Every structure is written in C-alpha cells, then in structure tokens.
Amino acid sequence: MPSGSGSEPLLARAECLAEGPVDHRGRPADRASTGGWNSALFIIAVEIGERFAFYGVSSNLISYLTGPLGEGNAAAAAAINAWSGAASLLPLLGAALADKWLGRYRTIALASLLYILGLGMLAFSTMLSSGSHQQCNNAMAGGKSCQPSTLQLAFFYVSLYLVAVAQGGHKPCVQAFGADQFDQNDPKESVARSSFFNWWYFGICAGTAVTYLLLSYVQDNIGWGLGFGIPCAVMACALAAFLLGTRTYRYYVSSGKRSLFARAGEAFTAWRSRRAADRAADSTEFSTRVDEEEQVVVSKSGGLAEAKAVLRLFPIWATCLIYAVAFAQSSTFFTKQAATLDRRVGQQLKVPPAALQSIISIAIVAFIPIYDRVIVPLARRYSGKPSGITMLLRIGIGMTLSLVSMVTAALVEIKRLRVARDAGLVDQPKVPLPMSLWWMVPQYVLFGAADVFTMVGLQEFFYDQVPDKLRSLGLALYLSIFGVGSFISSALVSGIDRVTAARGQSWFSNNLNHGHLDYFYWLIAALSAVELLAYVFFSLTYKDKGAVNNSSIVG
Fold it and tell me: Which pick of 33, 96, 204, 242 has the fewest CB atoms within 10 Å?
C-alpha cells in the first residue's frame, strides 16, 4: 500500500497491492464517495467521445475510399472490413496489457492520447498532395477523379491503423472499468450494474447518431479535413472529462506478478501433467507424484481454472461470427445502396448516404428505455432474474432480428434493381433512381433492434462469465467476434468478387445497377439461419459460471 502520507497515487504502480477496490491513492475505497453512477457517468462520457471519433472515421469511410482515393466498391469494402477486423482484434492485446501491467485507467488514458494523434494525422493526410497538377487536370478533364499520391495513400493508411491500435487499448478497458464501479456483491449495485450495460449502449448510440448526421454532412459537403479533424477535437474533450473523474473512481488491482501468457503456460503444464497421469494410471507411485505436481501448479496460479473458464465460452463466441458479418454490411454496402436512391427530403435538403446509419442508433436510443423500463421489469416478475431474461436468450433474439434484417435488405435490393431497369437507368449509376431512401429504413431499424439484444447481451455475457481477474479480456473476446467477422466478410467479398467477375459480372460491380448485392444478402441470411440453429444448441447446453462454480464446490 502507499505510504502513510498518501502522496504516492495508485496510478504510479500497483503490482504489489492487494486485490479489492481502492481509491485513486490506493486506500480502501469508500462506497459513499467512490463508484456508482457518479463515477460511471465520467466513463460513459469518454466512451461517447471515443465512439463519436471512431464512427466519425468508419461510418463514411467507403465514400472516402471510393471518392478521393479512387478505389473500387469491392476493394474498398474489403479494405474497410480488414481494418475493422484489426480494430476489433487488437483489444485482445490491449486487454492483456491492461490486466497485467498498465491497469485499465492508465490504458484508457494512453489509448486516448494515441487516438488524438491518429485522428490528427488522418486529418493532415487529406491535405497532402494528390499528385502533380498536370496529372490531376488531365484526369479531371477525362471525367475521372484525381488519383492520390503514394505518400498520401501511405500516410492515410498508417493514420487509419493507428486509430485501430488506439481502439485496441481503449475499447476493452472502458466498459470493464465502468462496470467495476458497481459492486456485484451488493444487491442494489448488482441491479444497477445490469442496468449500466443498457444505458451505456444508450449513451454511445445517442452520440453515434449525432456523428452520422453531423459528420457525414461535413465530409460530403464541406471537406474531409474538417470531417476528420472534428473527431480529433471531440476525443481531446472526452479525455479531459475522463481525467476529471479520477478522484471518484474505484480501482481494482491484482496482486499476481505473472502475466496472462504465463498463466496460460502454467495451465498447459498442468494439462500435460494430467495427461501423463492418465497414461500412467497403472503406476500408483508415479500417478501420485504427478497429481501432487499438478496441484502445486494449479494452486500457484489458478491458470487451469482460468483457461477452462475462457475455453468454455468458445462455442458461444464461434456461433456469433455470422452476426458480425451481417453487422459489417451496414457501414459498407448499405451506404453504397443508399447513394443510388432519391435522398431528397423537401425541396433543398439532401440526406448524405452515410447519415442513414443514424437510423440504427436512433432505433437503439428509442428501444433501450422500453427494454430497460418495461420489458425487463415484466420479465423479472415472471423469471425472478435481476436482468429479466437470460443473457443467452437476449443474444439469440437479436440474432433472429439480424437474420430478418438481411432478408429485408435482399428484398429491398431486388426492388431497387427492378426500379433501375424500369427507369432505364441501369447504365447511369450517378443518376439517382426514382426510389425513395425510406425504402431502406426497415433494414436499419431491424439492425438497431438486433443490437439492443445481441450487442448489449454479448457485452454483459463476456464481462460476467469470465473470471473476475480477466474481465478486460472478456470484453476483448466480445470485440474479437466483430474482428473475426469483419475478416470473414472481407474474405467473402474478395472471393465472390474474383469468382463472379471471372464469369462476366461481379456481384459488387462499381455500377451497383449491374451488380447483385441481393445474392450476397441472401447468402448472409442463409448463413445466419445455420448459425442460429447452432447457437440454440450450444446455448441450451451451456452452464452458467455460477452453476459451474457451485458444482465445483459440491464436488
């Protein structure tokens, strides 16, 4: 513990401290003055700013890649999915660093600084030269966009992946740090923690809706430099708000000095010892010696139990990957679809294509209060569970809604292609079709409703079901679903594009009126149906952490 003077803060180094909540100076946390909603609001504020910044980049990225950077639809979608995949997998590394060395608070602060640097570089990249003036003039005279220089392209992608690295440190720690402000052993705070996950998502979706509406307009109508610069300024303000709450937070520190990877190694050693004991069952003396060695390894770190606790989540993790593939389409092909429609509202206002993504956030903002204040209390009355329905049931309902959303998207695309043919605009991709953007609203609303169930359910599930020491890792595992899902989406798009282009016409043609996004949506819907069946099977056989712990005690 810190010295009696209290001059050494917890944030300096905390490896030798005992486990349990402490305040910012390392003293036992006072429940009356630390934690709870007063602390959680500061953490929600930094997350709203981070989501504003991240979606300020990602939501309209396909327009920037296919516009100023001159990439094709399939190449741009694949690049975005690869970047999104990296951004969602890097939290595994960030969680490990936070859980072992830095702690969640310092990881959040450092990741926020890295965010500000990456966003600033991204804004600066838009001002770099796009080649010689002569080359640009020749390209524009021929009706083509001015191709970016190699320097601009390289600087852009370095900046973009720096943002991905920043999210890798930020994302797994912020939500876990927020949930840490509620004591799961206190009945009132336990209920508040379950509600926290709902209102957490409400806050970030409210901020995201503003992002879609504001930044997509700025980027499309004013300039990309300002469009990327605003997220940088917002992230700086969010970091300041987070630091203001330093004195109110509860901090949890681990007394162990071994890293996650060391514990995994010890768990593997214990597993090998057990296998050796099984093979040598006929030798009592040898078997006894091995069992004693195994008990020593397990008692030293608990690594085997932790490894088992994480591995048993794998079936649920794997059966949510196609949900992530469907999720990836809302910021890529949905936006390109919207760009072909009549987006006029009134006589003068023209809605930016990326702004339609705000419908997802608006649907979430509208539905979460209904879920938290109406559905949960009613379900709680019958089930007796604080959360109303189980986390696994909640996730499954959202996956079903996602499947319906992809079917809806396929039907709308069939309608859009028919309108293009009937209007004689198949070969004029830049001419808006006589079809209102409101046709796309249902698929966005269904995605929003699906997120309320599955996204929030996955967050709570992976936070709650891992060992207490590994909660940052748990949320990183949740994020990795969307990382792997994005890579799967990227591979699907690239593979289908090569195969269908070789046969005459790509499903993802730069002229979407010649493409077949409807076929792609039907494929995702079919995969989602198969995934849902597998999910139902594994969720019915899954044992809750509490049940597993109780059975271990009884055994």
Answer: 33
